[in-house]
Design brief:
four-stranded mixed beta sheet; 26 helices; 17% strand
Length: 769
């Protein structure tokens, strides 16, 4: 007997297996089924293959989906580590996809079962939508019956039937529509949003030049997620989605809305339509219907664009690559734990956590959404879509189709950006200002951060507020009668907010509610798992790494050393390493010495002696004062002589620029809106004796994303979890993903991510999140 040990989620799994039968029985075999070719699936394929091999299993590709499973032969081929190299940046799927009528019949499924039994395959990893996952579950449920059919026909032996007595299944959801209930995001959705926003941004410029109205149809036959998030991200004038048809008389309302926008000086109008949009009577609302309405009734120069399958293609976003990689790892772990009594599960994303859900519960709830829409229960349909969809819809309703109230609140709220700029800040400012105006508040824009709040100067003040500046700030708060502050920025904003709270004892004018919205490419603000701007920077790094690797096409073996930003925070280096397929990522949070460097160099040398031709090393800018980027470049260059040569790149401030990603626009929009709504409630609590007086810890908070929800945490409570010297939180969730990065780079280490992904239930999850 041999013992197999796998450590995962702080638990050790032990398998005692007959050595002679090890490869046949213990093998975790993956069937990759891809009905639609969408971006991000190759990342899931790559992670599943490599982690499967890491556990000691044989892994097989099934080419052309279920059709390949039925046909067998060369369609089912063993995968190797090298067979999934250089595929992260590719859209679609490298193993093909096809619809299969044969699999719908029992005869066809019996053929598929026979092909699996002959190869000793008893575990399937299925990637697809609810239809393909339902088919996989049906296949599993009738597995014993199929074996009996094959036995009677003499196509398999009794020994083969005994060896393959049960079938385990785990699913990963791949769909750009994000229409599968139980997960916040499906693989491919974020990449589709990137394609859509690229088109929207391009159209916006021409629309402004010609004063045109543009109508864009996006995919979403039964789900309006793409349309809804696009409308939030671009500030569309109107959105049509299947889950919430417009009220009766929407035509007049739409025309009034467009007319008003033109009257206040807007030179363009943007209307987003999901392809499955309907009115209250179930009649389709199409681009042509809207175009004819706007043209005839308003006389506006109007254009309609149907994006079509362009949304399915292109390079996967960094988010989809990381999501696919994490789901692939979790899928293998789910199969390792599976028993004959374990229900088929689907691995999904909740907040930033990987979770496992019963497959058929998710399918059932997904079908309930369709039923609710068909029966006119639209509010329920929105809720069934999940908390993420519901939050997006509620934010859209807050920002659209609403006019400012006639009665003012006499409340002044000041908004200021602090520290280095980052993509997505404008989205937070825009939504905060609009929500404030809709609440009847007077919204004040403070230019030049804390300096502007203190004395109107434009010079940088550093990241700590001097005592004289705090005094000036208190005087200007009184002068401008400011009742609340929204501070948008990075670690400087966090520390500045803390110092304002500390100074409340001395300056009564500072006893006002304030909220800090994390916005920095470094993603180093305590109290939040994500910061506005980090996703844009991450995509910039990932895209640049792709181009750098491609630049060496046709040359000999080459290793690239790339330096990223982040200060002492290694978030960008680590996540870009996962997204770009790095061989190593050096960060401050994980100290390393000369022996570690020696191990990394030797490991890369061995890889480069095979068919691998590209190496990628990422280094966080402040990971080590002595092992600089130049040092690493010289080390790898010297040790790689005769095997590979090296190039180095310092990406610099290009990581802070660029057009915000859909995630950062959407995240910033929701954060800005939520912050001002919280301040509005807090101002009511703090109104005493005719004035605002806020001196409790919970009146000064950081608004952050923690695991599954946006929450407010008092600044004072976060001091204990902050390393002020290095400007990072003491606990950072993404450090648990670093073992995945190393395993996918072929290091032989223990896989321990410590966050337990246990089986949850969709109904319970919908009610508590």
């Amino acid at each position: 007997y041999v013992s197999v040990y796998v450590r995962y989620h702080s638990k050790m799994y032990t398998f005692e297996i007959d050595k002679s039968k090890f490869l046949k029985i213990c093998a975790i075999i993956m069937h990759l089924y891809l009905l639609y070719c969408i971006s991000g699936m190759n990342a899931a394929v790559r992670a599943t293959v490599r982690v499967g091999i890491y556990t000691g299993a044989k892994v097989y590709f099934v080419h052309e989906g279920y059709q390949g499973l039925v046909d067998g032969g060369d369609n089912i081929r063993q995968a190797t580590w090298e067979s999934v190299s250089m595929m992260l940046q590719l859209g679609g799927t490298v193993i093909g996809s096809a619809r299969c009528q044969d699999f719908r019949s029992k005869e066809g499924r019996a053929k598929a079962a026979c092909n699996l039994v002959k190869l000793g395959i008893t575990n399937l990893c299925v990637i697809g939508g609810d239809g393909s996952l339902t088919g996989a579950n049906e296949f599993r449920n009738e597995w014993s019956e199929l074996l009996q059919i094959l036995l009677k026909a003499g196509k398999i032996t009794a020994e083969e039937a005994k060896r393959s007595s049960h079938l385990n299944i785990v699913g990963m959801v791949g769909s750009i529509d994000n229409d599968f209930c139980g997960t916040d995001m499906t693989i491919g959705t974020d990449s589709a949003l990137h394609r859509i926003m690229e088109v929207v941004d391009a159209i916006t410029t021409t629309a402004q030049s010609h004063q045109r109205a543009f109508i864009l149809e996006v995919m979403g036959r039964h789900c309006g997620y793409l349309a809804l998030v696009t409308a939030l991200a671009c500030g569309a004038d109107w959105v049509f989605i299947p889950e919430m048809p417009p009220d009766e008389g929407w035509e007049d309302h739409l025309c009034r809305r467009l007319t008003y926008q033109r009257s206040i000086g807007n030179r363009l109008n943007v209307i987003i339509v999901a392809e499955g949009a309907l009115d209250l009577h179930g009649k389709p609302i199409t681009c042509d219907i809207i175009k004819n309405l706007v043209t005839k009734k308003l006389g506006f120069d109007t254009r309609a664009t149907v994006l079509g399958h362009v949304q399915r293609g292109g390079t996967p976003s960094a988010f989809d690559r990381i999501l696919g990689s994490r789901m692939g790892v979790e899928a293998v772990m789910a199969l390792l734990e599976a028993t004959p009594n374990t229900p088929a599960c689907v691995v999904s994303l909740s907040g930033n956590m990987a979770v496992r859900l019963p497959l058929m519960e998710c399918v059932q709830v997904t079908k309930e959404v369709t039923t609710a829409m068909a029966e006119g229960r639209f509010e329920e349909a929105v809720k069934l879509r999940g908390k993420s969809f519901e939050n997006n819809w509620n934010t859209y309703k807050l920002l659209a189709h609403v006019t400012a109230p006639d009665v003012k609140s006499n409340i002044n709220i000041a908004i200021l950006n602090v520290g280095a700029p980052c993509a997505g800040m404008n989205a937070a400012v825009r939504s905060a200002v609009r929500i404030g105006i809709l609440q009847g508040h007077n919204m004040l824009a403070v230019h030049d951060g804390f300096d502007g709040l203190a004395n109107g100067t434009t010079e940088s003040s550093g990241w700590s507020l001097p005592a004289s500046m705090i005094e000036e700030i208190s005087l200007n708060i009184a002068k401008f009668n400011i009742h609340a502050l929204v501070i948008i920025g990075g670690f400087e904003a966090f520390v500045g907010g803390l110092e304002l709270v500390t100074a409340r004892e001395k300056y009564e004018e500072l006893c006002i509610p304030l909220v800090v919205i994390p916005a920095t490419v470094s993603n180093n603000v305590p109290g939040s798992d994500f910061s506005i701007g980090a996703d844009t920077a991450l995509n910039t790094i990932t895209t640049t790494c792709d181009r750098i690797k491609q630049s060496a096409a046709g040359t000999k073996r080459r290793v690239f050393i790339i330096e990223t930003m982040g200060g002492y925070c290694g978030y960008l280096a680590t996540m870009a390493g996962l997204a770009a397929g790095a061989d190593a990522a050096y960060i401050y949070e994980e100290p390393f010495g000369i022996h570690d460097l020696e191990t990394n160099v030797e490991h890369l040398l061995e890889k480069m002696k095979t068919t691998v031709k590209r190496g990628l090393i990422l280094r966080n800018e402040k990971c080590n004062a002595n092992y600089t980027t130049d040092f690493l470049f010289n080390l790898y260059s010297e040790e790689g002589k005769g095997v590979f040569d090296c190039r180095k790149n310092v990406l610099g401030h290009m990581q802070q620029g660029g057009t915000p990603t859909p995630f950062d626009r959407n995240f910033g929009t929701k954060m800005g809106a939520k912050a001002v709504l919280w301040l509005t409630d807090k101002l009511k609590e703090c109104y005493r004796h005719g004035r605002i007086f806020a001196n409790t810890p919970d009146s000064a908070c950081v608004l952050g994303m923690k695991k599954r929800a946006m929450i407010f945490q008092p600044l004072s409570d976060l001091k204990e979890d902050t390393d002020f010297e290095h400007r990072i939180p003491k606990t950072q969730w993404w450090l648990k993903l670093r073992p995945i990065l190393k395993i996918l780079a072929k290091y032989k280490i223990s896989l321990d991510t410590s966050e337990t992904a246990t089986m949850e239930h969709v109904i319970k999850k919908r009610g508590t999140v």
